[in-house]
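note to self: dont lose this again. the chain is below, predicted strucutre after it. 321 aa total, dont forget to put it in the shared folder this time
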Amino acid sequence: MERNIWIDGMMGVIVGDALGCPVQFMAREEIVDRPEGAVTGMESGGVYHMPEGTWTDDSSMALAALDSIVELGEVDLEDIMDSFVDWYEEGEYTPFGESFDMGNTCSIAIETFERDRDPMTCGGVSERSNGNGSLMRIMPACLYAYARELSTKDAIKVVHEIGGLTHNHLRAKIACGLYYFCVKAILDKEGTLMERLQKGLDEGFFFYEKDITNRVELAYYGRLQNLQEFVEIPERKIRSTGYVVDSIEAAVWSLIRTNNFREALLTAVNLGDDADTVGAIAGGLAALYYGYGGIPEEWLSVIKRREWIEDLSRKAAVTIR
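---
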C-alpha cells in the first residue's frame, strides 16, 4: 500500500496532542509524583476533565487549515482564517463540537481578522507573539509545500504566511520554517532520525543565514545547530514551556533521545508544562519517520473522530499532489 504522509503527519500531531492533554500545565516533578506516576499511555482527566483520546486547540487549528487546503486544492489565507473563525466561534474541528484551550495570541489574531478581514495583518508581531501556537498547527503547510514540490523559497513563503496568520513575529516564523526543513529531510533523506533532522536543520540554518536580517532571531535556535551536542543536554536544561524556542527544542530533544514513536512521545509529554503542544510537535515528526504503523494502536483506537481525520487526510493525498 502506498504511504500516505498526510495520515502519518496529521495523526502523529493529534496523537501527541491527546497524549499530553491530561498533564498539560503540570510540572514534570508533579507528573512523576502522581499516584499513577509518569504518563505511560492515553489517559482521561486533566485540567479540562476530558476523556482519553481528546485533542485540543493544537489539532483543531491544524485540521481547520487542512480542511481549507483540501476543499480549495490550494492555500488561501483568508479561507484558512475563516476556518479558524469556525473553530473559535462555532466549535468546528473539535472532538465534541466545543472549542477549548485557546491561546491568547491565537484568540486575538482571530478576533482581529473578524474585525478587519485582513489575513496579512491579523497575526501578532510583538515580542510576546512568540508562543508555540503557529508551530503546533504548521504540519499541513509543511506537507502542502512538500507535496507540491515547491522551491525552498516558495515553501518557506507559504509556511511563514500560514504561521504568521496568528504569530507574525520573525522568531515564530523561523521555528515553523525549521520545522518544514525537518519534515522535508525526514521524507527525503536517508539515515537515522537524528541524522535526518540534522540534515534538515543544516539546510534551514543555511537558508536563513543567507539573509542578514534573520540572524538575530535565528540565534535563538543555536542549541539546535549541533544535535550531537544537543542530545547530551540533561533533562533539567530542557524547557517545555509555551515559548516557541523551548517547544521546538523539547520536541527535537525527545526525538533524538529515543528509538521509536512510543518512547519519543512519552519522553515529550512527561516533560510537562505545555505537554500537549510539545507532544503534537514531536508527534508529527516522529510519525513521518516511524510511519503510521509505528503509532501504538491502543493510542489510535481512542482518538476522537479518528475516522473523520483519516478520511480528510486521504482526501489531501488525492487533492494535493
